[in-house]
Amino acid sequence: MKTVDHKCPSCNASINYNPKSKNWVCEYCGSKFTLEQLEANEKNFESTSVKDSKELKKEPEEKVEMDEYICQDCGAQIVADKNTAATFCVYCKNTAILKSRLTDKFSPSQVIPFAKTKEDAIEAFTKVGKGKFLMPKEFSNPKNIEEIKGIYIPFWLYSCKMHGRVAGKGTKVTTWSTYDYIYTKTDTYKVERSGDFHFDKIPVDGSVRFNDAIMNSIEPFDYKDLTKFSYSYLSGFLAEKYDVEKEEAKKITIDRAQETCYYNLMTGTGYTSFVPEIKEKEISDEKIDYVLLPVWMVNIKYNEKFYTFAMNGQTGKMIGDIPYSKKKAFLFFLILFVIIFAIIAVITYFV
Amino acid sequence: MKRLSLLIILSIFFIPSIAFAENLTPKVDETQKIYDYADLLTDEEEKSLFDLVDYYIDKYNQDMVIVTINENPYGVSDTYTMNYADDFYDYNNFGKGEHKDGILILIDMANRYPWISTTGEAILLYDDERIAQMHDYSFNYLKNGEYYNALKMYVETATAFADYGIPESNQNLNYSDITNTYCYSPSKGLYLCKELEKKVNWPVSLIAGIAISVIILLAHLRKYKGIRLAGNANTYLGSVEKGPNVDQFLTTYTSKVRRYHDDNHSSGHGHIGGSSIHVGRSGSFHGGGGGRHF
What we know:
The complex is a heterodimer. Chain A is 21% helix and 38% strand. By secondary structure, chain A is α+β, with helices and mostly antiparallel strands. Chain A has two domains: 16-102, no CATH class; 118-163 and 195-320, no CATH class. Chain A is flat. In chain B, β9 (269-272) and β10 (275-279) form a beta hairpin. By secondary structure, chain B is an alpha+beta fold. The model of chain B is unreliable at 174-180 and 262-267 (pLDDT under 50). Chain B has a seven-stranded mixed beta sheet, with helices on both faces. The two termini of chain B are 48 Å apart. Chain B has a domain at 28-171 and 285-290: Roll (Diaminopimelate Epimerase, Chain A, domain 1). Chain B is 39% helix and 22% strand. The interface between A and B is large, with 72 and 72 residues. β10 of chain A pairs antiparallel with β8 (246-258) of chain B, so a sheet runs across the interface.
């Protein structure tokens, strides 16, 4: 099997995608290339050097479906599991893009290139404690970062038209008071609401390996940056192919869309309460796209515990569960209690 | 020492307001009985109401006063409406007999709120239930701007209740019941039977203090949890075309609950039997209550 990384057309050193300048910059000779220039060179490169690369046979008794590849730069063996589409050579640290992993049905239609660098991710991590004064001060120190990886994660983008209908009983409650009585009037109505909801590109991550909640939390991505997929974008980053099938992804997304649909139908009805007895939906105009979206995964080790943080590689939104100091929390509670207790005590004295 | 300084602070606030209240109440001829400052009635209507009022005063030996105002010099609120009614009665020397028995009906157009103030025996005669009924009967007239009919209805229902005599809720009052802040005896009238003691409510302060602190702490700690599954897809919702709404009326139901007024420094509130009682700014006791805003 062949691996591909990108060579500088000028000096033949490895070349990576630069999120800041949105082009490919050679760290050795300083040359800059656009996607078109690089692809023109790529064709030339494939017709010559790829022929020379040796393909290793897969190990016959492999159980965890690991494949071995040969690094284009140093000739070392690279081991990757079945879902890895781009990785690094452990010896020379150069990108190895496993093109065969992203072909046919695994070929993404579009990609949002990274716009945030590793440094941006580190800086964002140092600021996670903003407004969270119960966080141990040392937590956001960059020295706690164990590993930081820029990964193109496979996502399904689901679009559809959903016709929803809810029906049930609604009540309108009006109260008024005289000096001595409070009156409450409850009117009950039969209520029905329906509507067509157009959903556009709801993302669902296509990789089992990545936690769904984390991927939900870094949303949203700005789809105006979606561009036609090219292997060149993968240089300098890791990439995965999907292992969550289209149908499964659809199911997850429909659940999410229907919540929005019913919620929208049930709010703003003008009723004090509305309890639907019937909830129905009909789906049409379905469309599902397979794309790669950029994510910085930041693994933190603090006080012998591991924390996973993630940053949206396009917008820079950094998320993660932040630990809090129990001691600080207790102190905060005590201060709150003393103040509130004193205020209420004074109020009860006068009233 | 703490009590004394508190008393001084309270006096600074309340003494001028009491003096002020007397100045703001118009001085009137007490025999006139109808004071239509808001000009809601024609001369004929005033005359016709006066006849009804006069009949009531003669028959039941209770005073009756009708006041309408466009502007309340104290301000616009239900409490100010009450204050105006009480002060109008007290500072103008209305009322029959030693305990100044009588009823005053006030329409406060600034607040669009009717108020009935009762004094002396009338406090027992018109318990909360009856006051609420009187307001109920007149509410629709007030709402439709038929002020003469509304006031006529007030006078007629007041007359009808006077005919029935003191309601059951105010009969056989247990004069020695110390849980009542106010007591009544035919000779003394209404009197304060127990001074309310001011003290801190420790259990309430403790429980509310803990509960509110926990809520604030938990709300703050929510910010630390950054990883959550998405429950909706609002961000990805484009156009929405709502279908026709169905709203079909089925049933209606109305309930009422009695309000309990807290006791307080400036104008104490309490109740005796079935009547709510408060102390007016002149220091005399009043019963009665307000209706609905119209």
